[in-house]
Amino acid sequence: MFRLLKLISSFQNTLLLAFLLLLAFLMVVRYNQQQRHIMGDTLLEISGRVHKQQSKLLAFLRLPQQNDSLMVRTRELEKQKDSLFAQLQALRNQLLADTLDMGYVDSLYPAREQFDYIPCFAIQNTLHKSYNHILIDKGRKQGIRPGMGLVSPSGVAGRVVEVSDNFSLALSALNLSFKLSVMLEGTDYTGVYEWAEGNYQYGYIDALPLDAESLLEKSQKVVTSGVSTVFPRGYLVGTIASTENLSQDGFLRVKIKLATDFNRLYNLFAIDARHLPEIEELNERMNSDE
Fold this sequence. Notes:
By secondary structure, the chain is α+β, with helices and mostly antiparallel strands. The chain folds into three domains: 2-61, no CATH class; 74-101; 115-274, Beta Barrel (Thrombin, subunit H), CATH 2.40.10.340. The chain is 38% helix and 28% strand. The chain contains five helices and 13 strands. The strands form two sheets. A six-stranded antiparallel barrel has the order 1-2-5-4-3-13. Strand 7 (190-194) and strand 8 form a beta hairpin. The protein is elongated, with a radius of gyration of 25 Å. 25% of the residues are buried. Mean pLDDT is 79; it is low at 100-112.
């Protein structure tokens, strides 16, 4: 013990200098916004690169499950394609009959798609915290911006909140701060999705009108309402898990099973709303006129 104290005392000036340098560094980062932002980007880059290497190994081990999941998803998309094709053909025939004497069929062409999807991978994903996050392997250089929606092939996953050059941090749907406007598929009833903490497989719909209770069925789909500009209308969020619902302040609180398996989260898409800059410009003009 005496030798240890003697060794420490012999380096006391060096240790004091190191402590003061660390203290000065922390004060600079804490009280200067620019340095804090630079430090945040640097730490995100370092953390991203470390977790990316870990993720590569885990991804290799999960290849069989990923292939099975992709095959199932491909089959589902093929079924959806066939169904949509049949509906389009029926609509085309009806429109042709209605417009034959008018000499034009412009209404047969759908509006230009307003959303792009940027593929990415989850390289870190927390499940058991109150405020969970997802780290993805794409950043500013790959076109990712704060505010973009994040989806898996199965359903909604989160929303991007911070980006560096090559990595991004997203607010997971398993986060007490994450809110999303949703609706019961096939109806006009809307509510607000939120996570209730404790189980990564379930969430809740709040603010659902009481008269929607008669329409609730177990396994009924819950989808995005399209009210926000982050997610397109109709993207799957989950399914009704229980029809025994709680009534709060004149509204229903409904438990749902989430469509995304957050325990096996890997393949993701960041949603680029191409029409968002135009909407923001209009909002700025409106605010400047007030």
